[in-house]
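Re-running Succinate dehydrogenase cytochrome b556 subunit to confirm reproducibility after the cluster update. Everything else is unchanged from the original entry.
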Amino acid sequence: MADSPQRIDRPLSPHLQIYRPLFTMMMSIVHRITGVGLYFGMAILVWWLLAAATSPSAYATFAAVAGSPIGLLVLFGFTWALLHHALGGIRHFIWDFIHGFGPERVLLAKATLAGSVVLTVVVWIIGLALKG
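Result of re-run:
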């Protein structure tokens, strides 16, 4: 034991309270949250498909729930989560080719957020215009 080297005092890992939340860190967390939201949101898609395949009354029930103000809000959130997660996946795909790790990483994160909001609004405008 006397021949063993002295223990080196290494710095401790910083705790979450020490980290300053960065935009890219928040976008990573939102990407994970949208993934979970999409997992549970697939129940809406399954309900829609089952209602369409079952009977007109089952589809009317789905349409009534989905057309309510709360249903529209949930569908709007689901649309945003889908588009945000897809754009985040494209950002990760760019990273797979070892691009976008420099100063442009914040720009890519901001583009993901802005793009998801703009695309969601565009999709809903087109959808509501086609609905009549």
